[in-house]
């Protein structure tokens, strides 16, 4: 079971079969993670109005990595995204919405559904394993993950709240570090699609080690946290 805000999600039946989706390059939402968003485009304001009036669930997803476009010029979508529940909402006074999403479960796009709405809708298949939080967390190489994190901080002269890090569960640590990582769209998608926490942690460590090696060699291909 996953609790998000005031709602418990126990099975796939508790999740919508069709969701409005928000395509955003480089955005990574994972189960349990928190994502703040500043919404200003009219069609996505309409999407949030719909979500607020219904189940408060939207799908975060990246445009397809190869840049493919539909005939109408809209980007094709990646195959996998993550459902998020709207847990915080405020109006800015100048036409924007400032919101926070909490990740529920990943999903696979089955098909995009036509409709009259200005935003896009997809029929989805949720990853039911994500509704069993903590599964596989004991298999995470926490020491290796923290070593890579520490090396990244040192290389970029950054600090961390190590007290909070030490208290975080393996699941929270892996997903939080993945979401805050400074890497590109392809790396973010690989982290999202990792089949389990152990693989996600290993993927994050590998990406970090490659980035650090590039930085140490003077190769500008590394990407640094903004």
TrEMBL record:
<protein>
    <submittedName>
        <fullName>ATP-dependent protease</fullName>
    </submittedName>
</protein>
<dbReference type="GO" id="GO:0006508">
    <property type="term" value="P:proteolysis"/>
</dbReference>
<dbReference type="InterPro" id="IPR046336">
    <property type="entry name" value="Lon_prtase_N_sf"/>
</dbReference>
<keyword id="KW-0378">Hydrolase</keyword>
<dbReference type="InterPro" id="IPR015947">
    <property type="entry name" value="PUA-like_sf"/>
</dbReference>
<feature type="domain" description="Lon N-terminal">
    <location>
        <begin position="19"/>
        <end position="212"/>
    </location>
</feature>
<dbReference type="Pfam" id="PF02190">
    <property type="entry name" value="LON_substr_bdg"/>
</dbReference>
<dbReference type="InterPro" id="IPR003111">
    <property type="entry name" value="Lon_prtase_N"/>
</dbReference>
<keyword id="KW-0645">Protease</keyword>
<dbReference type="GO" id="GO:0008233">
    <property type="term" value="F:peptidase activity"/>
</dbReference>
């Amino acid at each position: 079971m996953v609790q998000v805000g005031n709602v418990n999600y126990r099975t796939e039946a508790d999740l919508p079969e069709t969701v409005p989706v928000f395509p955003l390059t480089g955005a990574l939402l994972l189960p349990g993670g928190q994502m703040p968003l500043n919404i200003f485009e009219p069609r996505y304001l309409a999407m949030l109005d719909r979500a607020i009036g219904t189940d408060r669930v939207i799908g975060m997803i990246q445009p397809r990595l190869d840049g493919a476009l539909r005939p109408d010029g809209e980007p094709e979508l990646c195959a996998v995204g993550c459902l998020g529940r709207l847990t915080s909402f405020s109006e800015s006074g100048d036409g924007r919405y400032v919101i926070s999403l909490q990740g529920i479960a990943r999903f696979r796009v089955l098909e995009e559904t036509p409709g009259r709405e200005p935003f896009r809708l997809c029929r989805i298949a949720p990853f039911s394993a994500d509704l069993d939080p903590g599964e596989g967390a004991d298999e995470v190489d926490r020491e290796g993950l923290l070593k890579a994190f520490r090396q990244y901080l040192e290389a970029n002269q950054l600090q961390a709240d190590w007290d909070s890090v030490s208290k975080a569960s393996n699941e929270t640590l892996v997903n939080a570090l993945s979401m805050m990582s400074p890497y590109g769209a392809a790396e973010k998608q690989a982290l999202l699609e990792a089949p389990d926490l152990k693989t996600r942690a290993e993927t994050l460590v590998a990406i970090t080690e490659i980035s650090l090696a590039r930085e140490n060699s003077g190769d500008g291909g590394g990407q640094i946290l903004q």
